[in-house]
Amino acid sequence: MGICYHRLMCARIFPAKKTHCRHIAAILLSAMVASLLPVSTARANEIEERIAYNQSIPVETNEIENWPGGPTVSAESAILIEAGTGAILYAKNIHAREYPASTTKILTTLIATEVCDLNEMVSFSHSAVFDTPRDSNHIAIDEGEQLTVEECLQAILIRSANECAFALAEHISGSSWQAFGDIMNQRAEELGCVDSHFVNPNGLPDEDHYTSAYDLAQIGRAFFANELLCKISTSTSLHLYPTATQPDEIYEINATQLLAGKTYEYPYLIGCKTGYTAAARSCLVSAAEKNGMTLICVVMKDEAPNQYLDTISLFEYGFSNFQAVNISQTETKYSIGTEGSFYSDIDIFGTSQPILSLNQDDYIVLPLTATFADLTSTISYDTEDERQAAIITYTYQGQYLGDASVDFATGAEGYDFDAPVTSSASLPEKPEEESDTGGRVVFINVLRVLAGLLIILGVLAAISGIIYFRKHVRVGRRNWRREYRKQRRRERNFRTRFLDARRRHAVRREEKKQRRHSRRRRTKNKYH
Fold first, then answer.
1. Residue 469: its pLDDT value, please?
2. Which residues are catalytically annotated?
């Protein structure tokens, strides 16, 4: 600015030199541009080399036999999962340690909605304001000002405001934002994260702050299940009005390019969060809903604007090559164990009511390159839900696709054990049209189930007997001895009290006798 001002004054004082000054300015500008060209070229070459390297990283799911071939993306790590089942549809370097940048904030805001009321007031401390780098994203809140939790969520997810993340972390931890890191790590572990360690609430650069595409997808399952967070994250602008605790009117634009009206608008988008630092490069966590499926996509260490192009490419891959399949409407033949006695097309109880049935809402994500009959299913009786008898897990080529619970049927009238049992050899074949009866039923080896129940009942009876014996026999004997000793003490106490009473009575009689004798002596002396 000083050089331009000096040249302007020269032109006014010496008009003849005006053209000469312009030539000098042009030469200086050309020199500056020329000096920047090598830097820009080197930078472009570095980005191209990084993209080429990232594209050479193998895609794990493309190596699965007969799995739909996924696209080549320029991100170093990428994952696409189905939110309801957690099935991984696309995997590239998903457990590599990466810096998450501002995508960290999906965990911060998720925790805030879980533990805070939206109307709680959040105070901005000195550290929350001044620990925020001035060249990072912020909305210029001053020390001592206050926003509600909901306003902080909006500022974090729409403008990626770092000071709001610091203040919200301090509000939740009750002390410093550094202490919030332990809360983040604990919640991440509960959500199924295996590669993460968080030390701050906003993703500002720190070597000890890292995660993976897999972990962000697990956090995303909880984040995108929250309608409020999805709504805020897809808002195109932030508008905060002045209040008694914050005097400024704040208006900011959401820079995410997947939103409506943006360059890379994606119509099925339901939520997203971007992130960028020099070390993390461009990161993006997003979710889209279509064809009865909700897909979550994570791309990390990408180059702008490829994070948007890669995300759209992965969404289109998922919606075009996979479908949601309801288990209860599709499962027609199921055997539990090779030695089981009950099959889906055999009922040894004849016309008895089923006691177990498949959950009507459970589904899997099936590749279009396979059929339901191609899947492998395994059953586990290890379930914590008392309404479930077992869990059936479906895989294809070793890749998890989803599971279905075998629930205890409701409204069953029971089974008449006095009725004759029809052998499996004499059972008539069921017509195909009768197999579709609304709810698919899985007949499990009831003999084993009953044997297990009998064993459990026997153990419970033995435990009850032991408890009864301890309480009513041994304890009763101890109680008899205790009562006997109490009775003896009562008798001794009674005798003691009785003897004491007799002694007191004798003393009182002797005292009365002495008093009468004294009165007689006084009377006799008086008359003599």
1. 75
2. 102, 105, 160
